[in-house]
Amino acid sequence: MNEQLQPLKKQPRVGKGSRTGTQDDVVYAHIFEAILEQRLAPATKLSEEALGEIFGVSRTIIRRALSRLAHEGVVLLRPNRGAVVASPGAEEARQIFFARRMIERAITELACQNATAEQIAGLRQMIKEERDCFARGDRGMGIRLSGEFHLKLAEAAGNFTLLGFLRSLISQTSLIIALYESSSRSHCSDAEHDEVVDAIEARDAKVAVELMMRHMDSVDAKLNLDGDSASDDLHAVFSHLLSSGKKKASR
């Protein structure tokens, strides 16, 4: 990975239209999404200066956002060397997937008990959007929606402690997939998601858990192969923000 970043030109501040919350909330959300969509490569150096210029905020705000991401295990804060996107090794990856299996099992069981009709309809809509993304070749957004499906399922389960654990595990899983999964493999999680939701709607916890574990098996089976979908170029990863800022400035 390239340790040095090219100098940046001054960019306009992140607009409020795309994200809400404090400035560090906005920065956190964009970096988290870039990791979840596998646009930001593991081991990428996260220069405070570069990110500050990209987002148009102070380095203090960047540090707060990076600290939140480090707490979730997707960024490493290295003393005197700055922050990098985490790069889990093979053994760590196995431990993360094991932990995620345990969390997904509990969430699925609880969702069978607590999911409302409205939440189930929302899960089905998310699956449709995920399928549409992969159909039109938008793999990054499809991967993001796949992760968000599991977070929505955790919300339906009604246990927000588990939801917090899962959020961190999903982002770490995305890093692992970026490192080890083959981009040539077909993506079939939307069909597997459909089956899980069918079982949840039927309130059949045994079948729902079995299907969720089978889904996790299929994700796990794709690991240990190369993937080239992510980038270590901060400018390229957040180019959509820079482009939108330039368009606003020209109006």
Automatic annotation (TrEMBL):
Name listed for the protein in its UniProt record: FCD domain-containing protein
Record bears the keyword RNA-binding: no
One Gene Ontology MF term: DNA-binding transcription factor activity
SMART domains hit by this protein: FCD, HTH_GNTR
Keyword Transmembrane helix: no
Domain HTH gntR-type: 21-88
InterPro entries: GntR_C, TF_FadR/GntR_C, Tscrpt_reg_HTH_GntR, WH-like_DNA-bd_sf, WH_DNA-bd_sf
Pfam families reported for this sequence: FCD (PF07729), GntR (PF00392)
Keywords per UniProt: DNA-binding, Transcription, Transcription regulation
CDD domains: WHTH_GntR
Native source species: Pseudomonas xionganensis
Region (Disordered): 1-21
